[in-house]
Design goal:
This protein has 281 residues and is α/β, with parallel strands linked by helices. Helices cover 32% and strands 15% of the residues. Strands 1-2-4-3-5-6-7-8 form an eight-stranded mixed sheet, sandwiched between helices. α3 crosses α5.
Length: 281
C-alpha cells in the first residue's frame, strides 16, 4: 500500500466533512459514573452509546452494536453510524452505535477494545429495556471499526462474546502487505512488539468458537485491500465457522450503506444480502 495515502486517509475525510456531527439520538454514557477511566471533556474522552430501538410492529428480536470507522484516528459516525442505526431500526433490528475512544483523544490499545466489550455488555444488560434477545446480540464495524468488531469477535469472555459479526470493508491484518498502516499505527504505534501485532491481526486469532460472520469488500479498494476481508473469511471457514463473503468487482473504500443512486456500483445491493443473511438465525 502507498504509505502516503495511508497517512493522509483520516485527514482527507475530515477535510471533506465526512465525519461531521449529524442529527442523532441522545448520547448515553458507555460506563457508569466513575467507571471506565474516563477523563477529559467531549466525546473523544467520554465514550457513548446512541440507541435506535426496533419498533414493536416489526421487532425481530436482534440487536447490532455498531462501530464506525475512521482509521482509529476519529469516528465517522454519520454515514457509518447514524445512517446505519436508522436503517436497522426501519427493518426491525435494534441498533446501538458505540462511539469509542481512539487516537483523537490520545487513546491506543487496549482502550478501543475495552470500550467495544463494554458496549456488548451494555447491549446484553439492556435487552429487556429494548425488547430483543440477549443471545441475539451481534457486532458490526466499518473499516477500522471492522477491525474493532473482528477484535471483539476474537477477544472475549463469557459476557462479551458476540453472537454474530458483520464486517464492512474491514481492516483485519496487522503487520502484512495488505495492512492499512494508518489504522495499525494509530492503535498500537509504529514500534509495537511482534506479539502485540500478531494478537491484533484478527485472522490469526480465529478459533472454532469465533462467531459466524457476514463480510463484504470491494476488489478495487486501494486503501484497505479486500485481502483483509478474504483472510478473515478463510480463517473462519478453516475452523468450521459459518461465514458469508461478498467481494464486489468495483467500488472504492468507504460508503457506509452505499445508497447513492448515482454511484451505479454492484456493491449497492449489500444491505439486501445482509438482511437475507440475518433471517437465517
Amino acid at each position: 500500500m502507498n504509505k502516503a495515502i495511508a497517512g493522509l486517509f483520516v485527514a482527507m475525510m475530515a477535510a471533506a466533512g465526512l465525519c461531521a456531527e449529524p442529527a442523532h439520538p441522545p448520547f448515553e454514557p458507555l460506563y457508569p459514573k466513575g467507571k471506565g477511566n474516563v477523563a477529559g471533556e467531549g466525546l473523544k474522552h467520554n465514550p457513548a452509546l446512541m440507541w435506535y430501538p426496533a419498533p414493536a410492529t416489526n421487532n425481530t428480536g436482534k440487536c447490532v452494536v455498531v462501530f464506525p470507522g475512521g482509521g482509529y484516528g476519529m469516528l465517522c459516525w454519520s454515514y457509518e453510524g447514524v445512517e446505519v442505526g436508522e436503517f436497522f431500526q426501519k427493518h426491525g433490528i435494534t441498533a446501538v452505535i458505540c462511539l469509542y475512544r481512539c487516537a483523537e483523544g490520545g487513546y491506543r490499545h487496549p482502550v478501543p477494545l475495552q470500550d467495544a466489550q463494554q458496549a456488548i455488555r451494555r447491549a446484553r444488560q439492556d435487552a429487556d429495556r429494548y425488547g430483543y434477545s440477549r443471545d441475539r446480540v451481534g457486532v458490526m464495524g466499518f473499516s477500522a471499526g471492522g477491525h474493532l468488531a473482528a477484535s471483539a469477535m476474537t477477544h472475549y469472555d463469557a459476557e462479551t462474546r458476540p453472537d454474530f459479526g458483520i464486517l464492512c470493508y474491514p481492516v483485519i491484518q496487522f503487520g502484512e502487505k495488505a495492512t492499512h498502516l494508518g489504522s495499525q499505527y494509530n492503535l498500537i504505534g509504529k514500534d509495537a512488539d511482534a506479539e502485540t501485532v500478531n494478537s491484533l491481526s484478527c485472522e490469526k486469532q480465529v478459533t472454532k468458537d469465533t462467531p459466524q460472520a457476514f463480510i463484504w469488500a470491494c476488489a478495487t479498494d486501494q486503501l484497505v485491500p479486500s485481502a483483509n476481508a478474504e483472510s478473515f473469511h478463510a480463517a473462519l471457514r478453516a475452523h468450521g465457522v459459518p461465514s458469508e463473503l461478498h467481494v464486489f468487482r468495483q467500488g472504492w473504500h468507504g460508503g457506509g450503506l452505499c445508497f447513492d443512486p448515482t454511484e451505479g456500483l454492484p456493491r449497492a445491493v449489500w444491505t439486501k444480502l445482509l438482511l437475507y443473511w440475518m433471517r437465517t438465525f
